[in-house]
Amino acid sequence: MEGIAIIGLAGRFPGAKNIAEFWQNLCDGVEAISQFSDEELIAAGVDPSLLKERNYIKAGAVLEDIDLFDAGFFGVNPKEAEMTDPQHRLFLECAWEALENAGYDAQRCESRIGVYAGASLNNYLTFSLNSDRIGSAHSFQKLIGNDKDFLSTRVSYKLNLTGPSLTIQTACSTSLVATALACQSLLNYQCDMALAGGASIRVPQKTGYLHQEGGILSPDGHCRAFDAKARGTIIGNGVGVVLLKRLSEAIADGDRIYAVIKGSAINNDGSLKVGYTAPSVNGQAEAIAEAIALADVDPETITYIETHGTGTALGDPIEISALTNAFRAETEKKGFCAVGSVKTNIGHLDAAAGVTGLIKTALALQHKLIPPSLNFEQPNPEIDFANSPFYVNNQLTEWNATSTPRRAGVSSLGIGGTNAHVILEEAPSLREQRSALAGEQGRNYQLLVLSAKTDSALETATNNLVQHLRQHPELNLADVAYTLQVGRGVFNYRRAVVCQSTQEAITALETIDPQQVLTHFEEPIQRSITFMFPGQGAQYVEMGKELYQTEPTFRELVDRCSLLLEPHLGLDLRSLIYPQESEKQPAAEQLKQTQFAQPALFVIEYALAQLWMSWGISPQAMIGHSIGEYVAACLAGVMSLEDALTLVAVRGRLMQQMATGAMLSVSASAAEVKTFLNEDLALAANNAPSLCVVSGSYDAVNKIAEKLTAKGIECRRLHTSHAFHSHMMEPMLEPFMAELKKVNFNPPEIRFISNLTGTWITADRAISPDYWAQHLRQTVQFSSGLSVLLEESDRILLEVGPGRTLCTLVKQHAQKAGGQVVLPSLRHPQEEKSDINFLLNILGRLWLAEVEINWSVFYDREQRYRVSLPTYPFERQRYWIEPEIPTQVSAKVESKQGKKPNISNWFYVPSWKRVPLVKTKEISSDCSLVFIDEYGLGSELVQQLQQLGQNVITVKGGKEFNQLDSNTYAINPSQADDYLNLLRQLREQGKTPKTITHLWSLHQSQTLSWETTQNLGFYSLVYLAQAIGQQQISDPIQILVIANHLHDITGNEELFPEKTTILGACKVIPQEYPNISCRLVDILLPTSTSENILEQLLAELTAELEESIIAYRNNYRWVQTFEPVTLEPTTEDNIRLRQQGVYLITGGMGGIGLVLAEYLAKTVQAKLILLGRSLPSDREKIKQLEALGTEALVLAADVTNEEQMHSAIAQSLERFGTIHGVIHTAGVAGAGMVQLKTPEIAERVFAPKVQGTITLNNVLKNINLDFLVLCSSLSSIQGGFGQVDYCAANTFLDTFAHWNTTTNNSFTVAINWDAWQQVGMAVNTNVPDEIKNWREESLKNAILPSEGVEAFSRILANSLPQVIVSTQDLLAGIEQLNQSVLSLSFAKKSVNSCQVSASRHSRTLQENTYVAPRNEIEQTVANIWEELIGIEKVGIYDNFFELGGHSLLAVQTISRLREAFQVELPLRTLLFDAPTVSELANVIALKQPQSEELDEIAKLLAEVENLSIEELQKQLAQESPVS
Fold first, then answer.
1. I want to staple 1413 with a disulfide (CB 3.0 to 4.6 A). Which of 177, 1419, 1475, 1516 is the partner?
2. Per DSSP, which regions of 288-435 are E strands?
């Protein structure tokens, strides 16, 4: 099999903070075992009585700093960091380090990287099912922070790794098994690289252990592997990670290879051994033999074995016996293979033991040294080393080469019998040969780049690199540069330096000379790049000479252009640009001639632009000065390179032939200069606000120069031979025009500025020959062009050509140039600096400005190697929770039911049963709120309630909030604030309602718009619940909704589907607000007397039953229920599908849509129309469908857009002639609590389900469909946390199916799907942390795609307008959901309900952004944030979410702020309106009583205090309302 290269290592071990220290300790024979004092042990929580026991061993292998972690680096908020197992935290840091050690940046690496790892038992934070408030955000965070399951996937998430991510557990062999599985994954091409390893940290570390004779723990705190005194191991702590890659690719990619895994094997002992925990000779021998066979090596060539080597009297002999059996199958040779055990150095690292042995062996192969195995004096008498292939290596030994590469084996054996063995071989020496060659090629200067997330980390990274370069002078500096560029993450604090040698790099980075070492901090910003191409006058001999010598891309383009120009120029342009030393002077003179200057400039600028672009630095805009605009046009695709070169050559030649003239640079504005001009002079260029060029005859220019000088205006003659851009160029226009007409011009593909207009070029001008003719005659409006460019801030303006003339012109636009980055590309001719040095400095400056550079192309002509360099200097802080005290919490939610095995039992239909109302209570005198209808029923109800002694407040619909009398209000149904004002005023009067009766959904006819219907129904209830939440009303409130036209019970009711969304609000509000109950009564409006109905409604107001959906028809009371129906598999007789029928699926490229499409293709070879909002980028799925024999038409159309849908239907009919059936699966998942719901959010969810269904029905009304299937959801039946809009939208679908089937006689069925596995919204939707556990559990019972299509076929074979699909007992499921949601008590969560440590951590944001609170309100807000988020120094401009806040913390924060300030604060204030301390303090200040109000209150209180009892009673009597 192909070898697997180990290309990266990272680890933390007892006595070693990194791999280098670990190797040094191994070579030095360090035993990193600590002996503990009684004081240390008692401080760690050990029972003092235990210390007196003789067999209590006070020793252990301690891993330093397990409480430290760089939370800010990984975007983890301090509280989350504290709650995360140190095994997970250190493993995450080591995973990052292993990637960097190999020279890979996970964020930019395009390879799929897998993670295979395991951890030991977590005893940092224990998880109690009883005391951890299952379902709360706190418990969920604690679970994912501490359960082994999340070790690997956390790394994948945090580092954005997309390969397989598996947590593996096989006890002590975990990490070597993980490595073997990672190798398999690489060989199977499931990933391109893989991280493998393990973590084992026992908390607290400073505890001893009880030694028991015959056990696995040592009696004296030492591990003596294979020694006669061996009686056990000790407990160690550590973390190890390796990065693996297929060997051929590692060699091709220039990776540093520590060692090669030639073969690996895993097996289990089975039961043929003494006991479950005992080792087995046969089991181990088979694993070793298999690994050797797979590696295809001779055992005699293996000269070292890193054993499991626990140092137990039973285990050691068995392990050597197993090794001997495996080797003896091939060789009788004795004593040639050394054995050792790292456990003698650092103890047994349990889940991390195997990878630790692997790392030790890989380092041994790399250094060609075998470290000593400690504490070995006399062999265990049960081991016959003399007659075995093995000997114990107890001293540091040179690992001598033989005729084959050095090879080793590594064993790891797990309690429970899972054995792993890996065969290693030293890395191929090919690398050194190629590296030696590589050192001779490439650039003679290198660009080193460093970045970090903080300024202090950048300084540490700089110092670490300096020390490393000093310690490793043999490193190739180009490889160092390459590794830093491609193998490190890129962060906001950046540093770059260009240097020629390692010593120069060391000196520069030590002194930080700002002239050479560039340091910059930049907030993430998307800068657009503008190329600026200079004009004539910038050229000089040897411009870009070094680039020509060392940059193949540049050289190839200069060569190509020169060859193309030779017929036009009559010479090789390179002889002028890069002449022989003796020819320099004449070449310089020739280069001043226009006929050569212009082509030379074009060639250098074009080649330079292409060089920049090859490195990933591409322009989004361009501007050229005169001839420079030709380069811009050529790059923009306006003209081909050949045409551009021809035009430039002809232009230069014709100009050369014109009469000579002069040009004058003038330090004044264009307007001022124009006053001096006459017919002999022209304004040639307007270069800057106060810099112009005048052009004309020698005489005219001399005269204007005198006039300007007399006026004190500075001017100077330019070194030109001709008067460009003046009337003296006119004779060449006609011949040049003739040349232009030969050219095929194209519209520009990259925007550039026109010299002629001083603004963006239009396509018409760019392709007009006349434009290019006028371009050489008219004024160069360069200043105007720069002004247009500078209107956009944050540009990078890169001068692409010789010198820095244009950079200087940009900087003269002082007001606008401030925020821009302005850079040249080539040195000025007077600058004595290497071209490469200069260009790399500019490249460094671009990198500092956050430009992404394509480093692979930068090095594509040279072989570079990744080298081992210092990894990121984590700035670790202490995050630690001392052992917690369990608290009592609510009962947990348990799944009481499971998935029914028989699909026939999954189906239900809505039904109604007559249930008379028998149990009622008296009408109370509490306050009641009634939203009255226009029909008058509400008003009659109010009168009845008042007669029965109830205090009733009436609410009518109006245009704005208004109190009409003491007990009547008008509110605008569509204004959320009106509901809030209403409840606030009622609370202030002590009239908080206990019951609310809502009759706004009673209408006589359906003439209302969708918007009005929702405002009176769905949104009205949502706003009402939000107001209750914002007012923090925690007393029980009953809402009774009275509506009509919602349900079909008797078979002749008129249905209004748009109204039924109110049912969604009724179902979900009680699930999110534990104190609100909500019931709905559907009635028929009486035609005459309302006596009966009034009695019925009064009875409902006093009902003591749980039923939530009720209907009255005549004198009967009906309650909604759901009846099971058995739907049998389809037969040929009842199948509704046609062979090769035409079926339209909306959401056709979604998960469920594709599953149903595949079913139709397979069963009836259907012709499919798959409709989606956009066309799929990947047509793989379509090809798979077509392979099944179907025709598929894929169309992009928004199902809510009638015009687009008409077009889609027309295309479908044109292609297939008809449509037989439609499946409407399009939908948007709902998400978000009622408290935060806005119409904008809800309408996005309503759109595909509601407007989409209505639109579909309209555009298909003339087509006689066999069926219309509406994919509804179980949520419309049972609600769901955060699903109010989704529940409402699906309720509409359910009613629409009934309505369409009966009203239009068109068979329509709504399928209320339970959640699907693998596809669909349940899988892809984010839910609040509070219910993730519950959701994960419930998904186990979800529908598999194969089950879904079976259910679909059965439903389609029947004629029911609505079918509910539930894999579990439906009624029990509804009850369970309500119980689980209630147990969350989401709205009432207090910060004290979960364990919060009092510790504070340093700021996660930059220190220089901290601004201290300025007043008491800001200080209080900051204090609350500090406590809840767990950081110190919250500044007034810090953003809640940037500090690590999230929606759950926001709920707690608002609760605390309400308590602290006694003001009403909606949750959205913090989430959307005021996410900083300053903004929040302003909101609070506005809501608090003002000082004048406080003075008035104080005055009134003083007056009250001075009144006598009699006066007080008299005053109260006057104030009281008349009853």
1. 1419
2. 302-306, 337-340, 369-370, 390-392, 397-398, 407-413, 418-426
- The CATH superfamily assigned to 663-718 is Malonyl-CoA ACP transacylase, ACP-binding (3.30.70.250)
Minimum mean pLDDT range among 432-441, 792-801, 1067-1076, 1341-1350 = 432-441
Which percentage of the chain shows pLDDT scores above 90?
69
Q: Are 1234 and 1069 in contact (CB under 8 A)?
A: yes
The CATH-assigned architecture of domain 433-521 is 2-Layer Sandwich (3.30)
CB neighbourhood size of 988 (10 A): 9
Q: How far apart are the first and last CA of the chain?
A: 96
What distances in angstroms separate CA 1105 from CA 920, 1034, 1059, 1119, 1468, one per listed residue?
Answer: 8, 21, 25, 11, 35
Whether omega for the bond prior to residue 204 falls within 30 degrees of 0, making it cis, is yes
What does the alpha-carbon distance between residue 259 and residue 408 come to, in Å, rounded to a whole number?
10
Fold adopted by 1391-1488? 1.10.1200
Q: Is 115 helix (H, G, I), strand (E, B) or coil?
A: strand
- Rounded Cα distance between 322 and 107, Å, is 44
Predicted model pTM: 0.63
The arithmetic mean of pLDDT across residues 1350-1361, rounded, is 94
Q: What is the pLDDT of residues 836-865, one digit of tens each?
A: 999 999 999 999 999 999 999 999 889 999
Catalytic (active-site) positions: 172, 308, 348, 626
Q: Quick one: the chain helix, strand, coil %, rounded to 5? A: 40, 20, 40
Domain with CATH 3.40.47.10 in the chain: 4-428
CATH number, domain 916-1106, options 3.40.630.10, 3.40.50.720, 3.40.50.300, 1.10.3720.10: 3.40.50.720
Which part of the chain is CATH 3.40.50.720?
Answer: 916-1106, 1126-1384
Q: Which CATH architecture has domain 4-428?
A: 3-Layer(aba) Sandwich (3.40)
- What CATH architecture is 528-660+721-849? 3-Layer(aba) Sandwich (3.40)
Tokens read off for 514? 């700002």
d(CA 68, CA 509): 29
pLDDT range class, residue 1433, cuts 50, 70, 90: confident
Structure-block tokens of residue 1483: 């909101």
Q: Are 231 and 313 a contacting pair, CB within 8 Å?
A: yes
Structure tokens at 943: 């009168």
1126-1384, CATH topology level: Rossmann fold (3.40.50)
Q: Are 1342 and 1373 in contact (CB under 8 A)?
A: no
pLDDT tens string 1124-1178: 999 988 887 778 899 999 999 999 888 899 999 999 999 999 999 999 988 877 7
What does the alpha-carbon distance between residue 394 and residue 375 come to, in Å, rounded to a whole number?
8
Measured from the Cβ of residue 731, the count of other Cβ atoms closer than 10 Å reads 13
- Give the start-end residues of each E strand in 427-575: 446-452, 493-499, 517-521, 528-533
- How far is residue 263 from each of residues 5, 729, 1309, measured CA to CA in Å? 11, 79, 58
Residues in the chain: 1523
CA–CA distance, 586 with 421 (Å, rounded to integer):
75
